[in-house]
Amino acid sequence: MASSTDVFLSSRSHTMGWLTLWTALALMPLGCVGSSGNAGGGGYGYVPAPTVDGGTATDGGGGTDGGVAMDSQSTSPDTSGGQATSTDTTQSSCTPTCGGAECGPNGCGGSCGTCPAAAPICTSSGVCKAKCVPQCAGKQCGSDGCGGTCGTCAGGSLCNGATCMAATKPCDVTSYQGCCQGATLLYCTNGKGDTSDCASTGKVCGWNAGEGYYDCVSPPAGADPSGTHPVACGTPGGAGTPLAQLSAVKTSIVDQGGFFPTWLAHLYGSKVGSLGELHFLSVTIDNPGTVETAVKVTGELAGYSKAAVKLVKVPAKGSKTVLLDPTWSPQLYKLSSAVPGKATVALEVNGKLVDTGEVQLKVLPVDTVLWSGKTIGGKPFDSFHSVVTLITPNDKWLQTVLTKAAKQSIFGSMTGYQYSYGSKVYGKNLPSVTALLPGGTSRRWIAYYEAGQVINLDVSVTCSVCWSYNAGYGLVPMEEYKAYMAGTGGKPLVESTALGKLQKKVLISKAGYYVHVAWNPSSNSTSRHFTIGREMSIYEGAADQLSAIYDALVSYNLVYVNVPGSYFSGAQNIKTVTETLLSGSANCIDGSIVFAAALEALGMDAALVSPPGHALVAVKCWGTSKGCIVPLETTSMGNQVSAEKAITSGWGQLPSVIEVADVSKLRKSGWLPAPL
After folding, report:
1. Please, what's the b/e burial string for 633-645 (b: 16 or more CB within 10 A of its CB; e: otherwise)?
2. Of 101, 107, 413, 543, which has the maximum CB count within 10 A?
């Protein structure tokens, strides 16, 4: 079926957008007392005191809040009549330092210069700078050149340079590791693309070695030292390219409206007949990058399986297809009706989710089979053959059925093919069959003999009230039986009329079906009593086991339920063995499955046989012959007719059979029973 894939990317949880800004705390300078005993001055630091020759100058209270010492000078009159002397004061020792700065403080309370009106802003490095004018003309997003932004992109789209870029898939313009467009960081968070202007925080876009991705970091900035993830967004195979992405997710399901075929679920991961290997999920992964990438692939049927996980390496610029088969949970086999479901796929790289996909399904209960939609995994297949998965020989009810059947068998036990020993010895003599035939009636017994087999016949006919025993017996090849009975031909191997007793050895020259037939001519007004003893044929041994199962199942009083009109054309609910026996009802396919499961439990080769729009069961005879089977119409149970008549009804339908599901052969080719 054409599966839709809803794919999106999800990436690491990035801290950007929730940046913690660290602020440097400036320590306020404390007022302190100088060596001259600067007493209680209000200065913000050390104030050098003036000195007086020959002594220590005293602070004449000249310490000011401005932190500048006041010189104290005085001139005294010359009292000696000589030249007057003066008292010198010493200036502060601070030397202004500008170091080429054109503005800003000089370190001694002064200034290195004043900025002109054209460049009025003095930077921290002492350079006059013009006032910044945001440059956003024609920009949708990105930096405005002045530490601000020209806008943000809505709807999860990303800023590519100065233009908002709509993502075809969220985060498809970057990867988990992120990338840089100048000072702009591009990254993924919660499956959506986002950006961060590093310049607005005083940082630059570069590689964060501690985290393993691009981030807003303190300068200097650098690129991924391994070279795996180039710093520039959009670099081919680099940070601007997804690490890995899904290009296709397909489920190998029956192409019938997206249904998940639970009755076939256990076959996924194995080879099944002409279909080859069946797999639940086929996942194709693309790697657009320039390096080989290890990808963890996980797939499951959500809620009904344990995920299948594979680690694969996807080549650079290449793709890889991965087949996934999860382990099914018991809940899958407990469904009683169809429920919505989905197959999910996830890709991880370096422990981070990079892509997901899903396919919507309708999950069927295990006992619902699709007759139409004749493909699985894109290959044609026969729905009728697939029903053998519901033939479960280990069903808990079968032991009870077979125990009842043992009482109906001529051997007193259910021995399967063990009623025969060796290739040419066909076991015990059958108990002599007897029949009381009124005039104008006949009776037949079918056998299958192999070439070279010797049949010991012991036939007698009696009549207690008649003078002659005129009646007939013949051993006739089946293909000649009708003509023989019509009197228009047919060549019997043995024939006798007016019997009293016949004992004869008959050598079989050609393998095939034969009919033992006894008749009482209509000219006889009294009944004749026939007793026919002969060695058991492989047909009669198989028929005994099948008939014993039939008689046991009749005791369950199963009611035949008419087949719905959608039979073989849509979805068909098919009961398991337990469901059939507990419900007390069965249609033709339900009943055939019960018989086939019981026969398989005995080690016998069963088959489902389908005339148009119908189903019955058949069992192979023991031995080397491939042509001997015993068919049975299972719906006869509801009519309470004998096993012999049910077999006769089966024979009547064989000429119209269009399909045969050989259980043993299909098992060998991989069609195994569904888990109970």
Report:
1. bbbbbbeeeebee
2. 543
Contacting residues for 54 by C-beta, under 8 A, at least 6 apart: none
Residue with token string 């054109």? 102
Q: Map tokens 């009124």 to a residue.
A: 438
Cα separation of 58 and 191, whole Å?
Answer: 75
Give the whole-angstrom CA distance, residue 389 versus residue 674. 5
How many angstroms separate the first and last alpha carbons of the chain? 28
Question: Each residue of 428-477: pLDDT tens digit?
Answer: 456 677 889 999 999 998 888 888 888 888 898 988 888 777 899 999 99
Give the model confidence (pLDDT) of 506-558 as tens digits. 999 998 899 999 999 988 888 999 988 887 788 888 999 999 999 999 988 88
- What stretches of 282-337 show up as alpha helix (H) in DSSP? none
- Would you call 295 exposed, middle or buried from its count of C-beta atoms within 10 A (0-12, 13-18, 19+)? buried
Q: What are the residues facing 342 on neighbouring strands?
A: 360
Total Cβ atoms within 10 A of residue 368? 18
Cis peptide before 220 (omega within 30 of 0): yes
- DSSP class of residue 13 equals -
State how far the Cα of 604 lies from the Cα of 50, in Å rounded to an integer: 124
For residue range 562-606, list pLDDT tens digits in order: 644 344 456 778 888 988 988 888 889 999 999 999 999 999 999
Distant-in-sequence, close-in-space partners of 432: CB < 8 Å, separation ≥ 6: 458, 531, 532, 533
Tokens for 570, please give them.
């849509």
Structure tokens at 555: 């005791």
d(CA 618, CA 596): 8
Q: Are 250 and 293 in contact (CB under 8 A)?
A: no
Q: Which helix (H) or strand (E) segment is 501 a member of?
A: strand 501-507
Alpha helices for 504-635 (secondary structure H): 538-554, 577-583, 588-601
- Dist. CA 164–CA 186, nearest whole Å: 12
Residue 432 tokens read as: 């002599």
CA distance 411 to 86: 151
How many angstroms from the chain centroid is the CA of residue 281? 6
Token pair recorded at residue 81: 């009549």
Run of H or E including 444: strand 441-449
